Amino acid sequence: QWRALCGVLGDNDLGRDPRFEAIMGRIENRDACKAAVMSLTRRFSSVTLIDRLNEAGVPAGHIYDMKGVFDDPQVKHLGMAADVAHKELGDIKLVSQPIEMPGEVQEPYQGTPARGEHTDDILKELGRTEEKIRTFREKQVI
What we know:
Elements (H helix, E strand, L loop, with lengths): L1 H8 L2 H5 L6 H6 L1 H12 L4 H10 L10 H6 L1 H5 L3 E6 L3 E6 L23 H7 L4 H9 L4
């Protein structure tokens, strides 16, 4: 994939550079490798580069901001956007699971719980009594 990437970027010499030929070399020379790749990728639009990389067998995809996630045609096609009421943020959108298992009922999505919101419930499920939980709080264990 490294040589294929360099070929797509138009620099086959970079693909044969002994500093970068093996993965450990690319790790050890990360700053130089990153600078070389960045100087080459800047010549392409992200759409063009992603298409060319995928055609060459190099896995590549978009890195989205949140708006881009929900504008993605695949997210729309699969109906993966879930509207959720969040206690602090109000109505927000989340990306739902990409895989649905036959016969499984998808639970409605909920906003992220506040820090410690479910601590008592979890401790009770683990067999801790109210008194023990109170002791944890007094000793600042939780």
